[in-house]
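ok so i was messing around last nite and threw this chain in just to see what happens. nothing serious, just curious
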Amino acid sequence: MTERGKVYEIKGTSIVVSPDKSPACFGCMNQECKSNGGFIFAENPKALDIKGGQTVEVQVKGASLLKQALMALLPPAFGFAAGFILTRLLFPQAGERAAFAGLLFLFISAFVIFKVRAKIPAGKIFTVSRIIC
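result:
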């Protein structure tokens, strides 16, 4: 995920970016911006010479996004498999009820992941990739 914006504040190696409100922001409905008061907090690991008011490009590493996606999608899939297999093992005559048990476990595990992420949000670590102007 890549965002562009103007540097609002610099705090050591951390910078605060005010993102551009472009049509691309419609994709996430500005959720990231709204949750942080309209700002994106980023690190400057490359030690670029950044000054206030400059336009920069910040991004989240693909590996971080992949990890977050797997943490959101794998537990419900494993929940379904566990519910289905356990029901078939414990009740061999269950038939289609095993699929219902799998769906029940899928929704329970998805709800647990939702509640855990509400209390412990996944950290999106933005980094400055380049200075635009």
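not much to say yet. The two ends are 20 Å apart (CA to CA).
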